[in-house]
Amino acid sequence: MSIPATTSKETPVSPSNDSAHEPFGCPTPYAEPLWYSRNVSPHHTTSHRKLRAAVRKYVDEEILPHAFDWESAGKVPDSARDVMPS
C-alpha cells in the first residue's frame, strides 16, 4: 500500500525541472526529507527519481527475496552480482 506524501490534488512541480512527479514517502511531518513533500531541492531532479525507482525495483526483485538466506549463511553468493544492472 502506497501512502501519498501530500494530500493536495495537484502534483507539485520543482523549480529545478519542468516535469511533475508522483508524491513519494510518508506524510507524517518530518518523517522524510522536506524535498520529498515540498519538492524544493535543486539537486533531486527527474533523473534522481528515476534512479531511485530503478534501485528500489532491483532491491525488491533481486535482493529482498534472498536477504534472510544470505544473512544466515553470512555471505552473498558471487552469482548474485551477475544480475546487477550496469
TrEMBL record:
Region span, Disordered: 1-25
GO terms assigned for molecular function: flavin adenine dinucleotide binding; oxidoreductase activity, acting on the CH-CH group of donors
Top-level taxon of the source organism: Eukaryota
InterPro entries according to UniProt: AcylCoA_DH/ox_N, AcylCoA_DH/ox_N_sf
Domain Acyl-CoA dehydrogenase/oxidase N-terminal: 45-79
Classification via Pfam families: Acyl-CoA_dh_N
Compositional bias per record (Polar residues), positions renumbered to this chain: 1-18
Protein name from the UniProt record: Acyl-CoA dehydrogenase/oxidase N-terminal domain-containing protein
Record organism: Sclerotinia nivalis
Lineage: Eukaryota, Fungi, Dikarya, Ascomycota, Pezizomycotina
